[in-house]
């Protein structure tokens, strides 16, 4: 057994794959999902399905309302989700989201004596979010090991992003090899209450292209 790990699980394709990878490597996985006021709340139900199917030791949901600040199409109903590629960092970027998520995972890691935090951040087939880059992950790991009692007392915490340099097709293939049931996942930014996808947002486009490039049928339910 590799030890204990906190795995951030959104309910989407990427984090489901990361949870499967961590389990395959022998980690005892404490799954953590974040209810941050997202409009596509069906992903939280998907996270519960995914963690159950992939054998997480536990699944907790932390609540922090990033909608209080707005500034993103994912938390502010007044900002429309784009359905075509846009220039620059899209409005689906949620300010400081991964910093907040990793901070909550870090707190959980200290409490359960975890040696690692796993995240599904990806810097290849993604929307250009600055907090999905390897440089950010490395910087947060340095912060984590300066900021925590556990690290200061000789038990450093690794921040692991095993798919950060993988294409979406590579992620899909790896998850398929590990038996991930992607029908359980929800990736759409505008999924309805039943988890059915719009088919045209950035997340839907990347998911669809990933399955196509992997040579696999996408088990996505559409509205």
Structure description:
This protein is 36% helix and 12% strand. It is α/β, with parallel strands linked by helices and 223 residues long. The chain has a single domain, classed as Rossmann fold. Helix 1 crosses helix 6 and helix 6 crosses helix 7. The protein starts with a strand and ends in a 9-residue tail after the last helix. The model has no long low-confidence stretch (mean pLDDT 96).
Tell me the number of helical segments per DSSP (H or I, 4 or more residues long): 7
Helix and strand composition category = alpha/beta
Distance separating the two termini: 42 Å
State the order of secondary-structure elements, H for helix, E for strand. EHEHEHEHHEHH
Total count of strands: 5
Q: Reading side by side through the largest sheet, how are the strands ordered?
A: 3-2-1-4-5
CATH C-level class: Alpha Beta
CATH homolog superfamily: HUPs
The CATH architecture can be named as 3-Layer(aba) Sandwich
- Number of domain modules: 1
In the predicted model, the low-confidence regions spanning at least 5 consecutive residues are none
**Biggest beta sheet attributes:** 5 strands, parallel
Shape: globular
Amount of beta strand = 5-15%
CATH topology: Rossmann fold
What portion of residues is helical?
A: 25-40%
Taking Cα atoms only, what radius of gyration do you get, to the nearest Å? 16 Å
Sum up the structure in keywords.
single chain, 223 residues, alpha/beta, 5-stranded parallel beta sheet, 7 helices
SSE map:
Blueprint (H helix, E strand, L loop, with lengths): L2 E6 L4 H12 L2 E9 L6 H12 L4 E6 L33 H16 L3 E3 L15 H14 L1 H4 L5 E3 L7 H10 L24 H13 L9
């Amino acid at each position: 057994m590799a030890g204990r790990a906190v795995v951030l699980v959104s309910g989407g394709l990427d984090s489901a794959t990361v949870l499967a990878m961590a389990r395959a490597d022998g980690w005892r996985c404490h799954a953590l999902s974040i209810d941050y006021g997202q409009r596509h709340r069906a992903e939280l139900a998907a996270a519960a399905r995914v963690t159950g199917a992939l054998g997480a030791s536990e699944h907790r949901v932390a609540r922090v309302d990033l909608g209080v600040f707005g500034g993103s199409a994912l938390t502010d109903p007044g900002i429309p989700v784009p359905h075509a590629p846009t220039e620059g960092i899209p409005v689906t970027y949620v300010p400081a989201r991964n910093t907040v998520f990793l901070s909550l995972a870090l707190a959980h890691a200290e409490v359960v004596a975890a040696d690692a935090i796993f995240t599904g951040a990806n810097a290849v087939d993604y929307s250009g979010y600055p907090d999905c880059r390897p440089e950010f992950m490395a910087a947060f790991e340095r912060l984590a090991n300066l900021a925590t009692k556990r690290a200061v007392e000789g038990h450093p915490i690794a921040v692991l992003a095993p798919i950060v340099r993988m294409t979406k097709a590579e992620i899909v293939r790896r998850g398929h090899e590990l038996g991930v049931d992607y029908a359980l996942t929800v990736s759409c930014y505008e999924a309805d209450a039943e988890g059915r996808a719009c088919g045209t947002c950035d997340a839907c486009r990347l998911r669809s292209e990933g399955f196509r490039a992997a040579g696999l049928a996408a088990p996505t339910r559409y509205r």
